[in-house]
């Protein structure tokens, strides 16, 4: 290693962890071998969490220990930390690959291309790696710094953001690289977003960093020739169109060619990075590989048969609003399928290798791109409890948590319908669905802590009686919130809503008359609430209703 100050294994603190003494950044060896004493990763932003797991922590463990089957996975989760022998194996692995973990190495810098250079010697500010920092023409008026004077990053932070760009970078035009024969007119077009940019990423989280690493380790036999990027031949400036050889190659995919340009060491001896060379990287050939960190939407095509699409997260939705997809463990020909990592977690629970009261959490994240995927419009992230018992089709918790989430969404729709009918009653027309602020969205934010509290309670594997009481308590509070939302709408109504209005229009060739009044809108609202909250208002069977 040409410069020991860039050693990511032992010298540079760059893995952000939370320990008993608070958050800190530690070298790679300490993060792995001491993973059982750290609570979790504390990344710069939510999209950094899967980057650190996929690009470094999980691949090192998988490549060092070899294939992971269900038995070894269960032993690791039961032990709560690596055994002494496993720590020696991981330590030897890091020593063996030490030259490839030098961020400042002149010949093989970690995750970079040595000597990468633009034909005109152009460099970018290091902020081009950071989607939340303005660069280029997107500089805010109140930003005191110019693009020619970027804020320097500590070396460890620069490496993290370099890996983040490998996974999430935009699909904008990239500058040319010397010795890349595919360059045209000094640039590379047709770039795709980083591989995670096409996914709705779902990351299982344990009670310690060690458990999180194990939960994110795919089980199975490694494909022939599958290696992480530091165990593969050194990268050249020219990018490739190829298919990942396996999960290690996929996790450490080099979506961009990068070279960090460090400043001269300052008085404190720390190395900082102000500039970076960024050009096109490898592209995945063919459809999206079977990535274990995303859920799937499955559709039937009469010509192509069953087609699987990565299920991306939608702006404005909480994580539990997609719970039906997260819990779709069994593969089907249509509908949803959960992530591969949650499937193996469900299998471990079914086999008794993971207790049904394990406090599993899942972190969801994604980026919303705009203008031909050339800019980042929004960052989506959530973190929620997920009862492992709900991953079992034969467990009562599963149906209950799905029902609670459905009820929350149904109450929001009911409030939206009430608002629409009240608008019609005063002579207006409600906005089209998806346009403008809907009152149901506000109600969902009120119900959000109630749903999360219910999910947390279900993590303790409650009995049927406890589950019934918890569900009834949720419905009681949810009804109160829905009535409060309705009262807010009714309080603002003018007097003419009481008399309402009558509208005559043609529907399917027939003349139909509708009368919109406050009283009928309220009646429909209360009826819909009662039909939704089935524990508070058990539905009367038709025969009993007739007899009454």
Quote the beta fraction: 15-25%
Report how far apart the termini are. 86 Å
List low-pLDDT spans: 543-548
Q: Compute the average pLDDT.
A: 87
> What's the total number of strands?
19
The number of domains: 2
Structural class: alpha+beta
Query: Quick one: overall form?
Result: globular
Major β-sheet annotation: 4 strands, antiparallel
Instruction: State the share of residues found in helices, binned by percent.
Output: 25-40%
* Tally of helical runs: 15
Rg result: 27 Å
Explain this structure:
The chain is an alpha+beta fold. The protein has two domains: 4-284, no CATH class; 395-548, Topoisomerase I, Chain A, domain 4, CATH 1.10.132. It is built from 15 helices and 19 strands. It has helices at 28-33, 48-65, 70-79, 84-96, 155-168, 209-215, 247-251, 323-326, 340-350, 396-425, 439-458, 464-491, 496-499, 518-532, 542-547; strands at residues 15-19, 22-26, 40-41, 124-125, 153-154, 174-175, 187-188, 201-205, 241-242, 256-262, 272-280, 283-284, 296-301, 305-310, 335-337, 361-370, 375-385, 501-507, 510-516. Strands 4, 5, 10 and 11 form a four-stranded antiparallel β-sheet that branches. It has a three-stranded antiparallel β-sheet with strand order 2-1-3. The chain has a three-stranded antiparallel β-sheet with strand order 8-16-17. It is globular, with a radius of gyration of 27 Å.
């Amino acid at each position: 290693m040409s410069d020991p100050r860039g050693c990511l294994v032992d010298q540079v603190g760059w893995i952000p962890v939370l320990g008993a003494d608070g958050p800190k950044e530690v070298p790679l060896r300490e993060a792995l071998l001491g993973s059982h004493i750290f609570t979790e990763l504390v990344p710069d932003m939510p999209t950094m969490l899967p980057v650190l797991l996929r690009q470094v922590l999980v691949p090192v463990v998988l490549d060092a220990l070899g294939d992971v089957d269900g038995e070894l996975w269960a032993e690791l989760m039961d032990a709560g930390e690596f055994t002494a022998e496993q720590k020696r194996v991981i330590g030897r692995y890091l020593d063996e690959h030490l030259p490839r973990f030098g961020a400042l190495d002149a010949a093989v810098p970690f995750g970079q291309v040595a000597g990468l250079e633009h034909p005109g010697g152009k460099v970018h500010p290091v902020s081009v790696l950071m989607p939340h920092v303005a660069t280029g023409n997107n500089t805010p008026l109140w930003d005191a710094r110019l693009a020619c004077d970027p804020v320097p990053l500590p070396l460890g932070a620069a490496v993290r953001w370099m890996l983040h760009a490998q996974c999430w970078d935009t699909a904008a035009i990239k500058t040319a690289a010397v010795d890349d024969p595919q360059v045209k007119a000094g640039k590379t077009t047709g770039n795709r977003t980083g591989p995670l940019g096409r996914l709705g990423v779902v990351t299982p989280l344990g009670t310690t960093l060690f458990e999180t690493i194990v939960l994110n380790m795919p089980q199975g036999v490694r494909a022939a020739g599958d290696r992480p990027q530091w165990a593969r031949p050194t990268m050249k400036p020219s990018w490739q169109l190829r298919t990942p050889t396996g999960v290690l190659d996929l996790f450490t995919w080099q979506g961009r060619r990068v070279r960090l340009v460090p400043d001269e060491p300052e008085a404190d001896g720390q190395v900082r990075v102000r500039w970076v060379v960024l050009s096109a990287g490898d592209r995945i050939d063919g459809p999206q590989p079977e990535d274990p960190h995303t859920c799937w939407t499955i559709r039937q095509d009469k010509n192509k048969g069953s087609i699987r699409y990565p299920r991306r997260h939608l702006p404005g939705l909480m994580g539990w609003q997609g719970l039906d997809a997260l819990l779709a463990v069994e593969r089907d020909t249509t509908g949803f399928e959960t992530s591969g990592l949650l499937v193996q977690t469900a299998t471990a629970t079914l086999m008794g290798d993971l207790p049904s009261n394990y406090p599993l959490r899942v972190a969801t994240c994604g980026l919303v791109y705009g203008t031909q995927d050339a800019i980042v419009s929004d960052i989506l992230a959530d973190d929620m409890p997920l009862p492992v018992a709900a991953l079992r089709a034969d467990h009562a918790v599963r149906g209950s948590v799905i029902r609670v989430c459905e009820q929350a969404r149904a109450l929001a729709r009911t409030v939206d319908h009430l608002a629409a009918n009240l608008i019609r009653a005063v002579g207006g027309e409600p906005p089209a669905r998806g346009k403008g602020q809907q009152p149901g969205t506000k109600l969902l934010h009120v119900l959000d802590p109630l749903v999360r509290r219910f999910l947390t309670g279900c993590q303790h594997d409650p009995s049927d009686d406890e589950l019934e009481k918890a569900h009834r308590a949720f419905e009681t509070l949810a009804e109160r919130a829905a009535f409060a939302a309705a009262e807010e709408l009714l309080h603002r109504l003018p007097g003419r809503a009481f008399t309402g209005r009558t509208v005559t229009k043609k529907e399917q060739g027939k003349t139909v008359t509708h009368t919109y009044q406050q009283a009928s809108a309220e009646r429909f609202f209360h009826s819909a609430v009662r039909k939704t909250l089935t524990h508070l208002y058990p539905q009367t069977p038709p025969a009993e209703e007739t007899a009454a």
